[in-house]
Amino acid sequence: MAEEKENEEVYVGSIDQGTSSTRFVIYDREANPIASHQVEFTQFYPEAGWVEQDPMEILESVKMCTAKALDKATADGYNVDRGLKAIGIANQRETTVVWSKSSGLPLHNAIVWMDARTSSVCRLIFWVVQL
């Protein structure tokens, strides 16, 4: 039984959803990358200092990267359908999206972490905290 577990194909996936692209990497049990796919997505600059992204485009980029990497691994002979045991996620952290509870759709584009439209509010809060 222990030898059977030792020979079991085990893979871990990693979604890296960054500021300008999404990447999905699949690793084997020795942490060797066996397949990956990456796509860039659009940045919008509606006004000076504002940075936005389409949340649905981000979601689609994750789906596409995942599917393409799984296809590559399978084509290379890896049994990821049975062996993929976990997926980790790294995201943009401070980028913000508000979703509709009733529709499940975003109410607006994502406000990206480097967007400066609230910098005056942040300065005010910092000033008040310093009092």
From TrEMBL:
Keyword Kinase: yes
Gene Ontology cellular-component terms listed: mitochondrion
SUPFAM superfamilies xref list: Actin-like ATPase domain
Name assigned to this protein: Glycerol kinase
Kinase keyword on record: yes
InterPro entries in UniProt: ATPase_NBD, FGGY_N
Family: Belongs to the FGGY kinase family.
GO biological process, one term: glycerol-3-phosphate biosynthetic process
A Gene Ontology molecular function term of the record: glycerol kinase activity
The species this protein was found in: Elaeis guineensis var. tenera (Oil palm)
